[in-house]
Amino acid sequence: MSTMSTNSFIVLPMVILLALLVCGIIPLLIGVYVYRDAERRGMNGLLWALVAVFVPSLIGLIIYLLVRGNYSELKCSRCHAPVKEEYTVCPRCGAKLRPSCPNCSAPVEPDWKVCPRCAQPLPEVENDVVPPVRPKDRTLGKVLLVIILIPVLLIALAIFILTAVTSSNVANGGPASLGQISFDSYFEKQEDSEIREAVEKWIDSFAGNTEHAYALMYEEAGDDGNTYYALVYVPGAGDSPSIGFGQSNGLWGTTLRLELEHTGNNGSLYCVKSSAKHAPDLKITVDGQKIKCDITMVDFNPVIVE
Ligand SMILES: [Zn+2]
Ligand SMILES: [Zn+2]
Predict the structure, then answer these.
(1) Ligand nearest to C-alpha 132
(2) Do residues 248 and 159 make contact, with C-beta atoms less than 8 angstroms apart?
(3) According to the model, what pLDDT value does residue 91 have?
(4) Which of 153, 137, 139 has its CA nearest to residue 26?
(5) How far apart are CA 38 and CA 26, in angstroms?
(6) What's the 75 CA to ligand 1 centre distance in angstroms?
(7) 120 C-alpha to center of ligand 1: Å?
(8) Ligand with smallest separation from the Cα of 119
(9) Which residue, 38, 89, 95, 136, is the most exposed by fewest CB within 10 angstroms?
(10) Contact in structure between 20 and 34 (CB atoms under 8 Å)
(11) Per-residue pLDDT tens for 239-259?
């Protein structure tokens, strides 16, 4: 019961924080972005910011992104200063942005023969014109990416928090234990002859195979969760001088970690006891190398509890 209350104490503020993030900060960022972007394009910033923030499911933002294409910014191709369609020269660097009448400076089109304002004939070609550029609008893609990424990141964060919370509960409880026993003393101490025979048969079945580890696992149902007993054989790793052992409860179930060193000793067994909701996964490493473990579920407890 105590683990349940610990969970809700940690998870509840996290959920509220995530909700605030989604409901508060993200629309605020969108509003500020749209306001500034719209103002720069000569659109009504306040109106579009309100549309982007208050039309639900980001539809307002998407409409804004589609509409603003018609108001795309022009830039001086020489100095990149923002310029307007009707400018004949760049106000910052003085680059000639479009042809103009040499007589009255009125903007003219390249194919016009006569200035419409002062009726002067216009020269054929003007070589010094550097037309403004319309920078490619990549923001739509970026915004869509962010819209997709934010929920994905939030889900990943939630999973991370849940996993961290359940793992920390295990660290407090420590519901797993490990013992080591040689084949000889196992058969000496195993009083149940049927179990002894079954274990002998099991050992015969993998004799000589040094690729895999093997485990016999027994599930003991209890009111407060199950207890799992596993008799584990790891080839070449008997009597390991250093043993790393632990259990972690993640979102995808319980994992028992058994880290051993290679000793060349094939004559011993590891006895594992674990409290978990579902049968734990055995992660066995020898000298840091993960080795596959074949788990056989049995209806007797093969472990000798000392
Ligand atoms: Zn310029
Ligand atoms: Zn003119």
Answers:
(1) 1
(2) no
(3) 93
(4) 153
(5) 18
(6) 8
(7) 28
(8) 2
(9) 136
(10) no
(11) 888 888 988 877 778 889 999
| Tens-place pLDDT, residues 151-202 | 788 888 888 877 766 655 544 345 788 888 998 899 999 989 999 999 999 9
pLDDT of 5 reads 44
Q: Which ligand is nearest to the CA of 114?
A: 2
Structure tokens of 236? 């070449």
Ligand 2 mean position, distance from CA 116 (Å)? 7
Cα separations in angstroms, 43 against 47, 48, 53, 66, 199: 9, 8, 16, 13, 80
DSSP 305: -
Cα angle 304, 204, 212; round to 5 = 85
For the stretch 275-300, pLDDT in tens is: 888 889 999 999 999 999 999 999 99
Residue 233 CA to ligand 1 center (angstroms) comes to 77
CA of 122 to the centre of ligand 2 (A): 8
Contacts of 166 (CB under 8 A, 6+ apart): 7, 249, 250, 251
| pLDDT confidence of residue 8 | 54
State the ligand closest to the CA atom of 123: 2
Nearest C-alpha neighbor of 295 from the set 274, 305, 304, 306 = 274
